[in-house]
Amino acid sequence: METNQILETIRMVEEENLDIRTITMGISLLDCMDEDIEKACQKIYAKITTCAKDLVKVGNDIEMEYGIPIINKRISVTPISVIASACHATVEQCVTFSKTLDRAAKALDVNFIGGYSALVEKGFQGADYALIQSIPQALAETDFVCSSVNIGTSKAGINMDAVKLMGEVIKETAEKSEMGCAKLVVFANAVEDNPFMAGAFHGISEADCVINVGVSGPGVVKRALEKVKGESFDVVSETVKKTAFKITRMGQLVGKVASERLGVPFGIVDLSLAPTPAVGDSVALILEEMGLESVGTHGTTAALALLNDAVKKGGVMACNHVGGLSGAFIPVSEDAGMIKAVENGHLNLEKLEAMTAICSVGLDMIAIPGNTPASSIAAMIADEAAIGVSNHKTTAVRLIPAKNAKVGDRIEFGGLLGSAPVMQVNQAGSTDFINRGGRIPAPIHSFKN
């Protein structure tokens, strides 16, 4: 890197909240499968603690040597429902697997471990149903385990039986623990190399062990756009593209160094713009810098479309292996600009849903009244899945039913999870719709063979 590039990177880190949001080690547990659950758990613990024994140390060393903050060191594993199938696991036995993951995470001092997951887009098999039923208890009795369930794909359609079940699971999870729902994501078109929690898992097609990097930098993009105030959208797009190039280059550097020192292959850079509650580190403020009075007003979806496209164009020029979700996250609780827009009445669930046709994920970290029916939650999941399945993109739902809270109350999560205003949910029911069950078929444009 040239001297001016080094100085620019230092400035972005110090003044604009640029960071590596996570280095995530993906670990395959396929060779840990065993008919005996105790043996399977022993193998899982041994493999995770062996493969990732130096993950935190290497991350800290790179942070010190290069002066680049690495906020999280995480692990993702093969979906546990696959591993649990070998021993025909019950609900209680699935919880045993979750506690094994939690124990390994604590031994390694990582921030989170993802992969307490099931892929049921076309139906249930093996331990899928038991694992999904165990999620409320597993998340209540562990500290670092994250869970995800994929209920639809563009090739398979939407498993509405799983959608209904997940509405009930989210309600039960909220009852059992305050933080459980913040660690639970329901996906359509989940990807196998996502380094971001809570939806990370290590896909079946991945190598035995890899390092994936998630970068971030909303503050950097906003600062860059401040310098082109009033310019055309052509200039805006080019500015975001160049900025994303620089951010992704830094992520690739960290990923390659971590890969070499840990002795495992480098996987991908996920160049998602992930906000934090820190002042200025907001995707909403980027959209407002384009000329919107407030995120949520007319024009928001178009602004988000430009941002997402430019970020991806800049990222793929900077790194051959871009993957994960890669785009802009809009988690309400983690973005100060989004919170302000909700509280001012400029942003509601319907507008957020429209924005998810463009952004990386979906209805993310949104607090809703605790008395919201499970059928309404399931219907929100179905809506998001329909957007993802129809548009060949990943969508997800991470909702937090807030016990004893009403619309307008503020729920505090702390840390990177921030706080969220409780949002209004449409009061008209969806029970009969959800109770139909079965599958919503894949869209016609999915048949490409």
Supply the key terms.
449 residues; Anaerobic Ribonucleotide-triphosphate Reductase Large Chain; 15 helices; alpha/beta; single chain; 44% helix; nine-stranded mixed β-sheet
Question: How would the blueprint of this fold be written?
Answer:
Blueprint: H1 3-15, E1 19-27, H2 37-51, H3 55-66, E2 70-77, H4 80-85, H5 91-108, E3 112-119, H6 128-140, E4 145-150, E5 152-153, E6 157-159, H7 160-176, E7 184-188, E8 209-216, H8 218-226, H9 233-262, E9 266-270, H10 283-289, H11 300-318, H12 336-343, H13 349-355, E10 363-369, H14 374-391, E11 395-402, E12 410-412, E13 419-421, H15 431-435, E14 439-440
Parallel strand pairs: 1-2, 2-3, 3-4, 4-7, 8-9, 10-11
Antiparallel strand pairs: 1-8, 5-6, 6-14, 7-11, 12-13
Helix pairs in contact: 2-5, 3-9, 5-6, 6-7, 7-14, 8-9, 8-10, 9-11
Order of helices and strands: HEHHEHHEHEEEHEEHHEHHHHEHEEEHE
Broad structural category = alpha/beta
Distance between the termini: 45 Å
Radius of gyration: 21 Å
Strand order of the largest sheet: 9-8-1-2-3-4-7-11-10
**CATH topology group:** Anaerobic Ribonucleotide-triphosphate Reductase Large Chain
The tally of helices reads 15
Major β-sheet, in short? Answer: 9 strands, mixed
The level of helicity is 40-55%
Question: How many independent structural domains?
Answer: 1
Average pLDDT figure: 88
